[in-house]
Amino acid sequence: MASQASNVRRAAVSALRAWAKGHVYMDSLIERQAAKNGLSKQDRALLQAIVSAVLRNRRLLDHWIAKLRKGKLDHETRDILRVGIAQLLILGIADHAAVNETVNCGKVSVRGLINAVLRQCIARREQLIDELDGLSPELKFSHPDWLWKRWKKSYGANKATQLLEWNNQAAKTYCRVNLLHKDAAATVAAYQKATPVESIEGFYELEGPPPSEWMKHGLVYIQDPATRHCVELMAPKPGECVLDACAAPGGKATMIASMMNNEGEILCTDSNEKRLPRLDENLTNLGIKIATVETHDWTEPAPEAWHSKFDAILLDVPCSNTGVMRRRLDARWRLQPENIAALGDIQRSILTNALPCLKQDGRIVYSTCSIDAEENHDLVTHFIASHPEWKVTGEHQALPYRDDTDGAYAACITRDTPSS
Q: Is 206 in a helix, a strand, or coil?
């Protein structure tokens, strides 16, 4: 029977193989493998660490493999070597555990090869690490060439390098205090492992996960401070009728409800019916009493009943996720240049279909978790140019290397009604 330790490495290889074949998101695969192998909380954390290290450093690991092994490798053996070398050179796991347990993941016919490569990695460890500073940024920090070139053109080499380095660091855990819960602010403020985020009221950086009772009783919502910009631009008021058009899983909707003091009406929609139960659960857990949930695909026209209904609309549209690649480790490998252009068509369609739903003096906030102007400022600017009856009244772009948060964009749009 395989040891629990080897189960973790096998689970990591299985998750990586399934991911490479295009199966769901990596977080789901990790959960599936942890459950399938009956992993303890500690071993589940190790599985997460190994898989994250491989995805975050995939290109660098292949560079090291090429230095240690000449010739072709089948896909499974390559993933096993990635898992082994990630433990040795990135995670600092003890040599004997990393080697022995990883070798056992391979078929009998390739175990000798895997063992030899990992032993050579140990022998050349200092040299491989010393060579890191001489590598190009896109190789050192494992990003596709096209993404590096794109950001270098947009931000310059120095800032683009900072962005790549940011994406390769472990993401911090932040929470927003649920002000609708009377004890939340005092409870979180008194917690020794919670540090207030400077100049951002209500947000805390957490050391480790939050206490389970906080989540059970809806004291906090886990979200990055960058998520607040679109809601602050919207500035929802108590008693208003608000639409959160792409609402799941509910972080921004619950923030809107808090700013409205749970007074008024919020319609939360999402195109994916399977995401609605979690949205509903989060709204209920945080004590949101003014929200209703419906399915709607905003690439299609809105029902007539929604026309001229809303004081404010939030469009947190599908995007490239280039502002949150620190958290979504597989996004950099899934995304292709043509995807951004295709997303632009979807984003413009959603914006076009939402406009009729706004009251005459209402406001609409367009939002992404992207740092690419093609999805953000440029898209909004071009949209306004073709819709001269509208204007931009506020805009914000959060950049990770500058703001120490996720990347995010928001623009507030209102009718450009001539003064009488």
A: strand
